[in-house]
User: Fold this.
Amino acid sequence: MKLKNLMALFVLVASSLMAHAQEINFGIIATDAASVQRDRWEPFFRDMEKKTGLTIKSFYAPDYAGVIEAMRFNKVQVAWYGNKAAMEAIDRANGEIFAQIRYKDGSYGYHALLITHKDSPYQNLDDVLKNSKNINFGIGDPNSTSGFLVPTYYVFAKNKIDHRTAFKSIRNSSHGANIQAVLARQLDVATNNTEDMGKLEVNKPELFQQLRVVWRSPLIPSDPFVWRKDLDPAVKSKLKQFVLNYAKSDPDEKAILNKIYDYDGFRESNNDQLIPIRQLELFRDRTRLENDDKLSYEAKAKALAEIDQKLAALQK
Assistant:
C-alpha cells in the first residue's frame, strides 16, 4: 500500500513538473499600452497554444527593460523585441534570436520617424534643430531601436547635438503615447516609426491626417523573436516550427498577424541580424566621443581605439 501511494505521488510530481516545463511565458515590449498590446497579440498566442500543445502565458511590461529583466531571471522564456532591446537580451539575459518578422509587402525592415502636428511651424529636420529650445520633444524608451537609438545617432550625434539638453523639455514614452501627445499638442515633435504610423493610417485615418513626418531614417531590420538559449530543445523545436510556418497560406492566420502590425509571416534568423544595430550604437558612441571637448587627448584616443576595435571585430 505504501509503495502504491509512493508511486502515485511520484507520477503526480512528474506530471506536475512536465506541465510546468511545457509552460512558456512570452514577453511583449511596451510599444503601446498593455491593453492595446494584449488585444493585438492574444489571438496569436491562442493559436500558438493550439498548434504546439504548450501553455502560453503573455507578459506585458510597462517598459522595454521589464521584459529584458524578466527574461534575465527566466520569468520570460520567449519575447518579441525591437533590435536594440534584443541586443540587451542577448548580452544580459541569455537570449538568442530565432526568427524575424516579415511585413505584408514582403520586406524585412521599417523606418524611424520624427513627427509633428500638421499645424506646427516645423516642416523638416532643419526647422526642428534650429528651433530646438522652443520645442517640447518626445523620445522613445532607451531600449527602443526606432524611438531612441536610431534618432540619437542620425538626428543628434551626427549633428553634434546632445538631445538631453537641446530642447525646451524632453520626455521618454512609448510610440503610442508619443502619437497621442503630439495629437494633443502636449509635445511639439516626437520620435515614432512607420509601423505605428501605418497602423494609425489604417485604423484612424482622420488622426493620421493631423500628423506630419519631418524626418525618416534609413531602413531598420524588422523585429526579432528571441528565446532563452537554455530553453528545452523540444520546446524550441515546437516554437520554431509554429512560427516559421505561421500565416504561410491560412487567411485567418494572416488576419491575426495583420492586426498586430501589418505582419505577414516570419523567416528564420539569428544573432547576426543585430550586427548593423551594434555598429550603429558604436558609431553613435564614437561620434559623441569625437565631439566631446571635455576629455583629455589621451582618454579620448584610448576610448576611440576601443570602439574601433569592436567595429573591426563586427566587420569580420
Summary: The chain is about 50% helix and 20% strand. Residues 8-21 have pLDDT under 50 and may be disordered. The two ends are 66 Å apart (CA to CA). The longest helix spans residues 2-21.
